[in-house]
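Chapter summary example.
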Amino acid sequence: MHIRTTIAAATAVFAVTLAGCGSGDDGGDAKSAPSRAGTPESSAAKTPGAEQSDGATPGDAKKATGIPAEPDAATRAQLIRALSAINPALVADEDKAVTNARNQCSTLDGGRRAETAARTRFSTSDHKVTHVEARKINVAVSTVLCN
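The structure predicted for these 147 residues follows.
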């Protein structure tokens, strides 16, 4: 899942870079304008999260991937309490639990196999997440973080 997030972020940065490179007027003649319509920069500017120049926030690229922004302190505490209520082993590493929860939002929004993803994502060498725990994790994460 981290690979997907990294690829999505890199793609967004690349798209923004391309859009920024083609935004200036180099004084070329009007004949060259139609040939630029099929270039990667014009298609990159249409991708989600690429419109960073006019009023877009840095979190827009993450929203396009279904991963919410880093939660504020109150939301983070609420998430940790909810996961801890399911099983304290889920929050042995709180930072990892929050990262896992944020990534789980993309699975919940994408209609993928959320239960399997939760079991894989939240299991550790010390604790294997059960099917029941996975369902509870998905409810907690969607209620506290993904909305």
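To summarize the output: DSSP finds eight helices and no strands in the chain.
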